[in-house]
Every structure is written in C-alpha cells, then in structure tokens.
Amino acid sequence: MKKKLLFLYAIIALSIIVYLVYRTLLFSKYENKLVINKSTPDFTLEDLLNNRNINVKYIKNFNYNKKCIGFEAIVNNKNYVIVTKLGKLNNNHFSIDKSEKDFTINYEITPFPPDVNVQIGQYFSFYDFPFRIKNTKYYLMGTELQKIESRFTEIVFKGSYINFSFNGSQKKDFGYLTPNEKMSVSLVLFNNELYSVITKGYKNYPFKSLHVLTTENQ
Prior knowledge:
By secondary structure, the protein is α+β, with helices and mostly antiparallel strands. 20% of the residues lie in helices and 45% in strands. The chain has a domain at 78-208. The protein has helices spanning 2-33, 45-49, 210-216, and strands at residues 34-37, 56-64, 67-75, 79-89, 95-98, 109-111, 121-125, 131-133, 135-149, 153-166, 174-177, 183-190, 193-201. Strands 1, 2, 3, 4, 5, 6, 7, 8, 9, 10, 11, 12 and 13 form a 13-stranded mixed beta sheet that branches. The N and C termini lie far apart (79 Å).
C-alpha cells in the first residue's frame, strides 16, 4: 500500500515539474520575441486618429516577432498614450460590452516590460495573437466614469486594472494594471484592425480624453 502511495506521489510530483518546465519554456518563447526599441513605428497615432495636426513625440516601440505591434508616446507634451495592435476584425459589426465578473486566468499571458514613470502595466496573450476579433467584453476593477461612443469607443475610469476578453472565450486575453487615477482606454478601428489606446495625464498635467485630443488641433 505504501509503495502504491509513494508511486502515486512520485507521478503527481513529476507531472507538476513537467508542467512547470513547460510553462517556463512557453513563457520564454513569447517573451523572447517581444523587443522594445526606439525605432520609427510602422503605424502612427496621426494615422489612427486621422489627424495630422496633433503634436506626437514617440518614446518607445513594441515589436513582436520582428513586427511593430505598438508604441508609447506623448501628445501635446501633456498627455501620455500607449497604443497596442490587437488584431483583425472578423465582421463589420464590432461590439464591446461590459462584463459583471472577471475573466478566467489565462496562463498564456505575457507582461510587457513595466514603465515605472507611467505606472501602467500591460499584459497580452501572444498564444492567440494576432486575434481574429468578432466581439469584445471588458471587466473593470474600479469605477467607470464615462463611456464615449462617437467615432470610437472610449472608457473613462479610475481603477486598479481593466481586462479584455475576445470572442466570448471568457478568458483574459489583454489588459492593463493601472494607478487609481482618471484615465481612459479606447478601442480604435483602422484599416479593419483593432487598436487599444490607453490615455492618461503626463506628469502633473490633467487627464484629457482621446476624443478631446483628436479635436484640440483640428
């Protein structure tokens, strides 16, 4: 009996070790493809917002598998943005709805290198990237202050994190860890691709929504 128990414990222990090794290798595979540099982005904020008059200073770019998937920038010297390409739309009737409960843990999530000055952490499931998106749900740990739905959807909030799940999977595909201050996340369509844009005040300047930024310098 004792030998059977020891054998069972050994099998369980070995299974756990194999799983942990697998998770470590998988995480390294995705993380090693994520490179941060200061090259010129393949797409710009001016393109996404269709506004050539805004003043944009590009800080750093995110590249995955040698392709640009996003960037950090300062707008009008007073507003900070992070732009991330999420993927292509599978239909012309894109929808975004709020979820009343958080999504299940996704072990494929890879964190982007944190920016201490901005205090925003970004995480992404590269296992499914680029996403083929039909619809989106979001869960906010905090207070939603406003939802603007004009040319694009913008969620203004104060909270500790906001998660996104695509295509009814109910798993966490993408999201941000955020300081508890007023900021927004926008989902912008450009060339049939979906981009996420998080916006917050830069240094001590007050927050301005992305909708306001698009009209300031028309």
